[in-house]
Write a sequence for this structure.
């Protein structure tokens, strides 16, 4: 990725995480390609496209309360953006069930996220 693209992608991803933490699905989906491939980190497997991502998050947020905050960005040799995140997941009683740092790796196509990978 060109150096000038780096701040734009960082900003877009920072806004994506903020929207996710607000539970603003339309704002997050606006940053994703229509046929995005997204990991289902909660149930396993992957989901594809805006409707499946929306359905997945709706199910997830009905059961758990995740908060994900980016703490670092790195551009990989293939142009993907790796984001180190601190994620805290609580159950509906506010009990912490996970407090960890993981990497989310994003591929962009035409300025939109086309896929995401979770690395533990």
């Amino acid at each position: 990725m060109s150096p000038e693209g780096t701040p734009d992608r960082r900003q877009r991803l920072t806004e994506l995480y903020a929207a996710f933490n607000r539970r603003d699905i339309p704002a997050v989906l606006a940053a994703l390609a229509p046929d995005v491939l997204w990991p289902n980190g909660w149930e396993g497997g992957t989901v594809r496209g805006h409707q499946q991502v929306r359905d997945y998050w709706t199910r997830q947020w009905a059961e758990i309360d995740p908060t994900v905050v980016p703490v670092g960005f790195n551009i990989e040799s293939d142009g993907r953006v790796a984001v180190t995140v601190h994620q805290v997941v609580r159950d509906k009683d506010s009990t912490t069930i996970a407090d960890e740092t993981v990497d989310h790796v994003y591929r962009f196509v035409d300025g939109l996220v086309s896929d995401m990978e979770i690395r533990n």
Remarks:
- The helical segments are 5-22, 25-30, 49-63.
- The longest helix spans residues 5-22.
- Residues 5-119 form a domain with the Nuclear Transport Factor 2; Chain: A, fold (CATH 3.10.450.50).
- The radius of gyration is 14 Å.
